[in-house]
Give the backbone structure.
Amino acid sequence: MSTDHIKRAIQAGWDEMSGAYQVETHISLDDVHYAPLCPGERELQILGDVTDKAVLELACGAAQNSIALAKMGARCVGLDISSGQLAKAREFVQQEGVDVGLLNADGETLNMFRDGAFDVVISCFGWEFIPDLEACLRECHRVLADDGLVIVGTTHPMSAFEWEAEGQFLVVNDYFKPPYEVWEELEGETARQGLTFFRTVEETFTTLVSAGFQVEGIWEPYPYDINDMTDEEKRAIPYGGPFWEGQYERLSKVPFSIVYKARKRI
């Protein structure tokens, strides 16, 4: 079954909200972000040394991770389906004076890249907008060099469920069948409802293995204690801002993000 209509809706949705999102959310240009209010790559060391590594960032948004990785010595290409997000990415690339290639394309089809072109494929908060995850990961496997890494940083399946703020608990209806998040904010004649896909740990792990990867690690990043931080310290968090600070009680009890590090099997 074709998922093109879902991709068009996701593209339209991100084009529409890109400006507001980039203003309201603080995303570092100097560190790779993995989860809101949480440590980034400089502290977690999930990727390690990326000097002279060829890196493809899928669903790069405004390419903050690509820019940060370029500053760490990587050779980066950022790919996103949203032209609105990429317009902001071009601004940031020029502002920071780094060399990052940018491409407006669908993350499920990477036929513009040769086999073994990259050492690392990374996406943080992009995989949940890809309808056919297995097709995407098989393409990632193809474009990765032998022994290459894929980093899947995505919304935790627990993020699919509602938080009861008064009682401070999560209402989990059925973990094994997490609901889709249906986008209802789109406007205009061509807008269609997009979806955010929440996948169980088993589903994502199994899909990685099926696509030819060996999982080397899984992280559920825990947030900093922002109650003991100054405003300056909060601004230094790789992924933050007032919206996420308002979600701190939930984020400190239920992981928002889950990160998989997997290596291409030879």
User: Anything to note?
Assistant: DSSP finds nine helices and 13 strands in the chain. Residues 4-264 form a domain with the Rossmann fold fold (CATH 3.40.50.150). The longest strand covers residues 144-155. The CA atoms of residues 67 and 173 lie 39 Å apart.
